[in-house]
Design a protein that fits this description.
Elements lengths: L6 H13 L8 E5 L13 H4 L4 H13 L1 E5 L4 E3 L7 H4 L3 E5 L4 E5 L4 H6 L7 H16 L5 E3 L6 H9 L4 H16 L1
Parallel strand pairs: 3-6
Antiparallel strand pairs: 1-2, 4-5
Helix pairs in contact: 3-6
Length: about 180
């Protein structure tokens, strides 16, 4: 791996850790090679910050990796972060991103009946962008960095995001469904 000279050793340590045979925790230290303003952190929101230009996002990450040290088990990771629970955006919730704060959230406005009847649409804008990001990152990062998949989150949270006003609407749904169940 271009930015990780001891990648084979780190990979073996990960394998041993997962098998329970590593006698210590995994250690990941990422630090700038030289002190330059802005090199302290890797932008985990680069794919949303530069949407829809996945190529620019990957190039910025690779440029940053050139200036970083990846010590012990740390490695260059191109995490395609589209926000926790982007699955809800794939299913119709609105993705909102605040680049100043560095966070994304999802707002839906669906009924439970809408959610039960929904079908995945492969033409969804965010799904197509994820596929583009994976393709571009996989091509540009070959032998340079590991490409990490986005965070889909758990099904309950995704349903809550699709309902809107998370978590209040979902909690009300559960309460009223419980009341109906007791009456039966």
């Amino acid at each position: 791996m271009l930015y990780k000279e001891d990648w084979d050793e780190a990979r073996e340590n990960f394998k041993a850790w997962w098998e329970g045979s590593l006698d210590r925790p995994l250690i990941q230290i990422i630090a700038p090679k030289e002190k330059h303003p802005g090199d302290e952190n890797i932008d985990s929101w680069v794919f949303l910050r530069h949407y829809p230009d996945a190529g620019k996002a990957v190039n910025l990450l690779l440029s940053k990796f050139e200036r970083m040290l990846f010590l012990k088990e740390a490695y260059p990771n191109v995490w395609i972060n589209l926000g926790p629970g982007v699955l809800s955006a794939f299913l119709g919730a609105e993705l909102k991103f605040d680049g100043k704060v560095g966070t994304a959230w999802f707002e839906g406005d669906m009924s439970l009946d809408d959610i039960v009847e929904m079908e995945f649409n492969p033409e969804n804008t965010w799904w197509k962008y994820l596929i583009k990001c994976i393709r571009v990152a996989s091509e540009k990062c070959y032998d340079k960095a590991v490409v990490g998949f986005t965070d889909l989150l758990d099904p309950i949270t995704v349903v809550g995001q699709l309902r809107g006003n998370y978590p209040t609407n979902l909690l009300r749904d559960m309460f009223y469904l419980e009341i109906d169940w007791i009456r039966l």
